[in-house]
Amino acid sequence: MTDEVILRVKDLKTYFHVDEGIVKAVDGVNFDLRKGETLGIVGESGSGKSVTNLSIINMIPSPPGRIAGGEVLFDGADLLKMPLNDLRKIRGNRISMIFQDPMTSLNPFLRISTQMIETFVLHQGLSKKEAKEKAIEMLKLAGIPGPEKRIDQYPHQFSGGMRQRVMIAMSLSCNPEILIADEPTSALDVTIQAQILDLIKDLTARLGTAVILITHSLGVVAGMCDTLCVMYAGRIVERAATADIFAEPKHPYTQGLIKSVPRMDKRSSDRLFSIRGQPPNVINLPDCCPFYPRCDKAKDICKRKYPTTTEFGQGRAVACWLYTEAK
Amino acid sequence: MTEKEVLLDVKGLKMHFPVGGGLLSGKKGHIYAVDGVEFEIKKGETLGLVGESGCGKSTTARAVAQLYKPTGGEVILKGKDLTKLKADDLIAARKNMQMVFQDPYASLNPRMTSGDIIAEPMRIYQKRRILDMTKKEMDERVEQLMERVGLSRFFRNRYPHEFSGGQRQRIGIARALALKPELVLCDEPVSALDVSIQAQILNLFKDLQDEFGLTYLFIAHDLAVIEYISTRVAVMYLGIIAEISGSADLYKKPLHPYTEALLSAAPIPDPAIEKARKRIILTGDVPSPDRQRPGCNFYDRCWKRMDKCLKNRPKLKEAEPGHQVACFLYHDPD
Residue B150 and residue A173: Cα distance in Å, rounded? Predict the structure, then answer.
């Protein structure tokens, strides 16, 4: 990891227009991704993790979605304002993605070879024969046994873990600078999850790829990520180095989240800590702190205004009124 | 714990599903989903059943509940073998055993109000004259149950789509408790929930157990959840139980190589611990249970395998007091 920032997300806003009103799925997200860094985004369902990352590569279905504001700076250019043709040269080439469900992200009608060759031919201008050789090489790198034979098979002939390996081989085949992995192991079993996380870690370190890892599992981020962003109701409420967040979470939501996960290394017969109430409905959310109805430390101002972000240095930032006064 | 009454005793439970045999293929086979599972649950305890997808956890629960007719084995609930009961007697016996399902979206009828859903078990047993309750008593019971699981009684006329995932799971739990069962089979009841909601529901399960003296068979694939909720834990692999022991014991000192690998693969939410940990990464996937193996089911993926494991099937035997394991590292083939 170096200090060179390769992706800067500034005040990103993505809204969805639905019958009931406006869903502010992402509402002012800021973060930097450094070269070779693994950045984790955690949050519960509906907190805007996936929408953030779809917005980065401008893949929000529109309508009903709309990127309402902000910038995504990659290599000096704003991806959100880039013409589609230029963007296509970046997607899958310099920034690539892995999705949660490896079954729905591969085309069931096409052989693996067809799907992998496409990437090489399109982005690297290789001939089909060269592309196939490259593809076999990538599959081997991703730990698929007998890639020469497997490459001509269809997705249904692969197990869930193997399909995810194919996706990883495919997404890393153009040596991208950034890999966005959206819940890459949530559909997999624990032992397979360990294999896949190991593979992602190993390959991205070898290729120097920066990773944005989206997950709801605190266990996964603890082992994988250098930096962590915690999202709640469309905003990042806390951002810090992974070790710092786990050692001393500052935002009440982060504190609650870490405390409410049962841990197998620390057995306790006590009750689990739990955050009371339900995650908020993000339709027509008022301009208050969305966490205040569930927060034990809520103050009067939390009901009236969204907290400003307090910077603590070393990339640490928290959006909570508890820390604004202290400064 | 030893003096406590055994509530459920499962002996040699087998559940084989026929597959194929279609018009064209002509080939017939079986999926050996559950292939000789044995365990007992004592009154008031929680047996956690953990394993990867396809290992037969849910099938075991469903075969225990007699939702599937088991291929073989006995399911003895309070001294009665459910597999041999006649339909009427089975229904009467099953009053004592209820289920909570994984998917709070699929397990509630979208056209019934939450109140009707919770009252339905009572209505069914009322109709069969096994339960004697007036309409008013039932209504009161529904309201009482809703309050107990943390739902306002004013929600009783609402439909499932008006509730969040966590609230729906509360409805499912209230329904399971309606008949005052002693045994509740929980099939991945928290797997579909977010972390903060999962903690609420796990606490609810514990509170209800303390209050009503419930006994749980609790299925999950999350090892930390299983440890938190269980008194004893059974680890399943490919249709058999690989290891069964007291919860604290199992996590401190796993004996079966599969349990060891499973525990080392599960991530711990602490970066300092994660950095220092050494993982046992298993090769390959969970094989398909489409054939019966002469040897150990785990042979293909085991890193401690020996020659005798290929030809002989290890039986579940006590290796240490209260700690049973099916592995030849701890006992020799008969």
Answer: 51
Determine contact: A156 vs chain B, CB below 8 A: no
Please, which residues bridge with residue A215 across strands? A42
User: CB atoms < 10 A from the CB of A317, how many?
Assistant: 21
User: Residue B110: is the preceding peptide bond cis (ω within 30°)?
Assistant: no
How many Cβ atoms are within 10 Å of A161's Cβ, its own excluded?
22
Beta carbons within 10 angstroms of residue B26's beta carbon:
8
CB contact under 8 A, A191 and B199: no
Q: Under DSSP, is residue A189 helix (H, G, I), strand (E, B) or coil?
A: coil
**In contact, A96 and A172? CB cutoff 8 Å:** yes
Q: Do A278 and B166 touch (CB under 8 A)?
A: yes
| Dmax (CA) of chain B | 67
Residue A182 three-state SS: strand
Q: Are B159 and B124 a contacting pair, CB within 8 Å?
A: no
Structure tokens at B39: 């365990």
| B50 SS3 class | strand
Please answer whether residues A179 and A209 qualify as being in contact, where contact means their C-beta atoms are separated by less than 8 angstroms.
yes
Best mutation target among A42, A190, A221 (most B Cβ atoms within 10 Å) is A190
* Model confidence, pTM: 0.88
Contact in structure between A235 and A319 (CB atoms under 8 Å) = yes
Residues A195, B261: C-beta atoms closer than 8 Å: no
Q: Of chain B residues 258-317, which have a CB less than 8 A from chain A?
A: 261-275, 277, 279, 281-282, 285-286
Contacts of residue B243, defined as CB under 8 A and 6 or more positions apart, other chains included, come to B234, B235, B250, B254, B255, B256, B258, B259, B323, B324, B325, B326, B327
Is the minimum CB–CB distance between A42 and chain B shorter than 8 Å?
Answer: no
Nearest of A258, A172, A169, A164 to residue A211 by alpha carbon:
A172
Cβ separation A278–B272 shorter than 8 A? no
Give the pLDDT of chain B (334 residues) as one tens digit per residue. 456 789 999 999 999 998 876 666 666 788 899 999 999 999 999 999 998 888 889 999 999 999 999 999 999 999 999 999 999 999 999 999 999 998 888 899 999 999 999 999 999 999 988 888 899 999 999 999 999 999 988 999 999 998 888 899 999 999 999 999 999 999 999 988 888 889 999 999 999 999 999 999 999 988 999 999 999 999 999 999 999 999 999 999 999 999 999 999 888 889 888 888 888 888 877 788 888 888 999 998 998 999 999 989 999 999 999 999 999 999 888 7
Q: Measured at the alpha carbon of residue A50, what is the angle toward residues A27 and A303, in degrees to the nearest 5?
A: 35
Q: Pick the residue of B194, B204, B210 with the most A CBs within 10 A to test the interface with A by mutation.
A: B194
CA angle (B124, B128, B132) in 5-degree steps: 85
Q: What DSSP line would sit under B72-131, residue for residue?
A: EEEEEETTEEGGGS-HHHHHHHHTTEEEE-S-TTTSS-TTS-HHHHHHHHHHHHHHTTSS
